Amino acid sequence: MRWLAVVSSGKWGRVPGGLKRRGLSSWCQALVYEKHGDPRLSLRLERWKLPDLGNADVHVKMLAAPINPSDLNMIQGTYALLPDLPAVGGNEGVGQVLAVGSHVTGLHPGDWVIPTDSGLGTWRTEMVAGEDLLLRVPKDIPLESAATLSVNPCTAYRMLLDFEKLRPGDSVIQNAANSGVGQAVIQIAAALGIRTINIVRDRPDLQTLVEKLKVMGANHVIPEEQLRKPEMKDLFKSVSRPRLALDCVGGKSTTEMLRHLERGGTMVTYGGMAKQPVTVPVSALIFNDIRLRGFWMTQWKKNHALNKEALNEMIESLCQLIRQGKLTPPAFTTSPLEEYRAALDESMKPFSSSKQILVI
């Protein structure tokens, strides 16, 4: 007889696999979209049928899920990965295991889990997913850190470690430094003894933002306009030219940033907020031997799908930084799932300074 481990009304128990799962719903509430377009118009909070729990499946109660730019791009239909429609929004979040199938050995009721890949649809109250699509995370880190762990910190971690062999004292330059990835880069780099030169757009509360990033560990915070001025040469009298540039903007911001790279350095593009192409001067390639690379966390996970050790090692390293107080989530605002429209409005405002997290 097949068995399922379940938790019902807060108590652990077991029932035969073919029987009704006591206390576990076959339906959930989910933010669903049936066509691509403006997320504020496309999303609806609806009842969503859960699939039956298979031998290798896990039933999860979602606890919290952020709203990321890639989530919005997916709903808009402009992202590289698009699920079949209708679909549930959200690619990141943390949940708690309610029940596991009879063949599941690595997860147990009560565990916290995060998705190992995009496309699961985390903006919902519950989900059923294969064990291979979930990764256990420790419960001794803050809920908001767990909910925002699998995208921005992982992206920052991989870019800092995989493209240049950086040593303490080396420097990195990045634009969109106030973004979720940018803040993670600042904190992880500081923990590694790497100096950061951080480019941000000018804004009314610029000085407040500069102070906030420096508290996180930023060594230098520079308005984008200053990046193009001759005074930048003075900075490199006391700071080594960066060997690594991290680009999330594109357009002129990227062109000006890579001019300051050390000869033989690497520029990694992982986003295109300006929606403009990356333009590279010929001299940067011929005379400075600059290397241009791209990075997509989803592709890294696909490439390492058969090697969970690399993923587990990265997550554990990040969790250790969180425990030590060296890696905190970006400034955030929490909202109930039912108030998703207000959260979407805030997420889509220019110069948004707070990540929206749906608490479920």
TrEMBL record:
Location(s), subcellular: Mitochondrion
Record flagged with keyword Oxidoreductase: yes
Domain Enoyl reductase (ER): 40-360
Top-level taxon: Eukaryota
Main EC class the enzyme belongs to: oxidoreductase
Keywords: Fatty acid biosynthesis, Fatty acid metabolism, Lipid biosynthesis, Lipid metabolism, Mitochondrion, NADP, Oxidoreductase, Transit peptide
Family recorded in the similarity comment: Belongs to the zinc-containing alcohol dehydrogenase family. Quinone oxidoreductase subfamily.
Enzyme Commission number(s): 1.3.1.104
Main location: mitochondrion
Any single GO CC term annotated in Swiss-Prot or TrEMBL for this entry: mitochondrion
Organism: Pleurodeles waltl (Iberian ribbed newt)
CDD domains assigned: ETR
Residues spanning the signal sequence: none
UniProt protein name: Enoyl-[acyl-carrier-protein] reductase, mitochondrial
GO molecular function ontology, one term from the record: enoyl-[acyl-carrier-protein] reductase (NADPH) activity
Keyword Disulfide bond (UniProt): no
GO biological process: fatty acid biosynthetic process
SMART domains linked to this entry: PKS_ER (SM00829)
Transmembrane segments: none
